[in-house]
Amino acid sequence: MSNLYARDGISTVDPPLSQAVGYVVVVVIGIIIAFIMMLVTKVLKKTAGEDNKKTEMFMTANRTVRTGLTASAVISSWLWSTALLGSSFVGYSYGIAGPFWFAAGCSPMIVFFALLGISCKRKIPEAHTSLEVVRIRYGRVAHVVFMVLCLVNNIFACANMLLGASAVITAVSGMHIIASTFLLPVGVTIYTFVGGIKATFLTDYFHTAIILIIACYFSIKAFSTDQVGSIENLFDLVQAAAQRHPVSGNHEGTYLTMTSKSAILFAILHTCSNFGLVIMDTSYFIKAFSAKPSAVVPGYTIGGIAYFAIPWALGTVMSSVALGLENQSNFPTFPRRMTSSEVSSGLVLPYAAITIAGKGGAAAVLLIIFMAVTSTLSAQVIAVSSILSFDVYREYFKKSATDRDLIRSSHFGVVFFAAFSAGFSTMLHYVGIDLGWTLYMLGVVTCPGIFPMVFTVLWRKHSKAAAILSPVLGLATGLAVWLGTASRFFGEVSVATTGEILPCVYGTVASCFSPILYSVVITLIKPQNYDWAHFKKEKLALEKLDSELTTVHHDEPSSQNVAGSIEEGGVNSASADAQELKRWGRIAAFWSVATFLGHWVIWPLPMYGSQYVFGKKFFVAWVVVAIIWLWGTMLIAIFAPLLDGGIQQILQVYRGLTGKDHISGTSDGNKEVGVASTPASQSGGSVSEGKEVAGGNF
């Protein structure tokens, strides 16, 4: 069984699960989760005063989310179906270097975002979206330019997720690919429509827990099968696979080396693309705005470093299993290798899972892909709805928009974007575009705004003309280089040639870095010298008065205590000490540099340059460390939110439901959010504590 037929041919793998299972997971479980979240939203409104008829609660969770839940939400934000499928895909294609570079292309920019997040908290604490920052600083023309770039980013990100998820759901259940594409957003639309950003945070937590538990299960199950048995045996299997079909561009043709030309090209491509996906994704800014000032940096830093293990460990183990067992009779494609189309569609992970766990493995993959795509879609949907409500409706149609107006426009945005993203993904599918194509070319369209956006927050001299022109010129440069190199290297411009890695690398790098040159040159001609204090003159929060000082009942602290105790969680947290925020900024800068140097330079590049080939002991250590890190990530994602305020809020909800606590206020969205009528002696004499009760910190 050492010989396999070539990749040529049409996939003839029968789905291990029935269509009914696919519809149950995608539709029934999706709707059940949606209704559970609707119930949770109602309970939190009744017991904790979290009124989602108020815009600040709907969009920013009253800016009181703590470190634990922020870290969990950050991990979840990158738990794309693309990450789960793509890390195994590049591991199968490039070997051991693929999953590592996939992970290293994610964690540094997640941690870097902590610097942008805390800078926004310090300079413009009332913002809801990154586009509000652009509009205030540069005006409407720049606002429209960045709005288009952000929407393009969200559209392609959603298409990337839906294409991969739908292909896998179809492969394991036989469900029609278009049906899965349109049904996946249904549950997301329902709970995001009702619960807003807080529902997104809570479903992020729930979905992340399930995904990581199943990922940890796969990390153990792979070595408990008779065909593998141990990490040492997996090493032998992968080594034998390299002898059967050596990897072009890898040192000695082996899968067991970091010296892989294709993998390093993918690393450059993936790192640039992900910088674009983070910086130009308004959902990341929304989650940063939703967090407490003291939670932004530790939340994003812990989340970014913890996330590294997921694509690294899962991709390494499952791609190695696929490579090692591809010539076994129970591998789904035996007696042939996986076709290029199957690999590019992200089927390495499900095929490996089926091989080691049968129908149970197929069901587990179906569940984690569903959880991943719905969780990240929720963040994308709320991001786009925030753009449509705050940056389009409020700015260009109704300046005096009330809570009710903005919530209504947000609801419209949720439904519209969910339907649009499904339709756009369907169009891409019918023109022959799959997960692999979008994974490679994504950076061409997401990267032009990276440095202009970073300069907007961090560089006071960046000019209005540079902000408007540099991303447009950068996009034009990236597209020209991408299409030009596809034509130069492959003789034509087609779906196949534009999806090759070389044109995508050249196009992405040009799209990412050319705006630096454009920005610097244009700015030097006429620098702006912006005064950051102008940001705070803009009144963006609708519930400023409610949030700064919720109703103080007769049994609450005196006004003297109130004046000295408004510390965290308010929409305009004036008490968030400027020096403390600067200190967090320095910490964020340190961890940004340290994470990039550690994950991208110091660890992998010496191994690449030395042409090191993994021995058996080193491979065992590599896999063991990855699995331990993965299990640590699972523990952080599940228990950190519970220990950091979650248990407290669960107890608060319990007391509220059993009548032991009374939340004053009303369900009328135009009235104030009440605070728990707790005696001053118990509340510690602090409105900030009362606000935490009202806003919710889990």
UniProtKB/TrEMBL annotation:
Q: Which residues cross the membrane?
A: 20-44, 65-94, 100-120, 141-163, 175-194, 305-325, 346-371, 377-393, 414-433, 439-459, 466-485, 505-525, 587-606, 618-643
PROSITE patterns found in the cross-reference section: NA_SOLUT_SYMP_3 (PS50283)
UniProt KW keywords: Membrane, Transmembrane, Transmembrane helix, Transport
Q: Which InterPro entries match?
A: DUR, Na/Glc_symporter_sf, Na/solute_symporter
Q: Which Pfam families match?
A: SSF
Q: Which Gene3D superfamilies match?
A: Sodium/glucose cotransporter
Membrane topology of this protein: Multi-pass membrane protein
In which broad location class does this protein mainly occur, judging by the first location in its UniProt entry?
membrane
GO CC field: plasma membrane
Region of interest called Disordered, as start-end residue ranges on this chain: 665-698
Q: Which residues form a coiled coil?
A: none
- UniProt GO MF annotations: spermidine transmembrane transporter activity; urea transmembrane transporter activity
On whether DNA repair is a keyword of this UniProt record, the answer is: no
Membership in a protein family: Belongs to the sodium:solute symporter (SSF) (TC 2.A.21) family.
Which named protein is this?
Urea active transporter
State the organism of origin.
Penicillium cosmopolitanum
